[in-house]
């Protein structure tokens, strides 16, 4: 089937939905909440957009925490949107609204419609050349003084885990060759590091970075969640790894088995280096 998105895997895959549901919980817990950069949500923020909302976890958490806000989730996947809508109905969250849409096309929202736009971990569904136009479209959708909140990760630190390190590097190199991210040396994605410059180029001001290191070492509460996240993530990437001849099926199975062994060691150390960048549209 022809697709008009650049999502690196199948956005309508049930496995991808499961991965995103669990990853959302991991990120929110590991980062310290849905909006850890704010002591309190500014009183003039009442209309929020989440770009690439997936199964809707962040939107539903915001809708619950701030019942006076209307929160809109946008995603390319019909399956994700249907799931999120069902959850919103079951949880009685009328202020959580989900719409299907493609961020690569002009947004079906009025200029200045939103007070805050959130976009998280978009590095593998937005090609590097598309970032400037997407940020300009978000800029248009924000009201003067409105806030953009972007969260990305360039890399993870893992030790002692040579097989996992190599698999991460080969994955980064693969997606870079496909046109994602801003790093070509296999050290990471390079999107988090580029955000401040891209936001300034789009016209945003008051640009502030907020690092959120997530510890998923063997002794931590988040270790199992990230272990599961790794296994499912690499499994969803397998068709690409095979298609692009990064490794064979046999090599992948042996590699993933060794990754399991490394991550289950008592001395395993891991940190996911998340960076949230917040900026404003000039008044």
From TrEMBL:
Instruction: Drop me one GO molecular function for this one.
Output: methyltransferase activity
Q: Report the coiled-coil segments.
A: none
Q: SUPFAM superfamilies from the xrefs?
A: S-adenosyl-L-methionine-dependent methyltransferases
Name used for this protein in its record: Methyltransferase domain-containing protein
Entry's CDD domains?
A: AdoMet_MTases
Q: Which organism is it from?
A: Dictyobacter aurantiacus
Q: Which InterPro entries match?
A: Methyltransf_25 (IPR041698), SAM-dependent_MTases_sf (IPR029063)
Q: Which residues form the Methyltransferase domain?
A: 48-146
Q: What is the lineage of its organism?
A: Bacteria, Bacillati, Chloroflexota, Ktedonobacteria, Ktedonobacterales
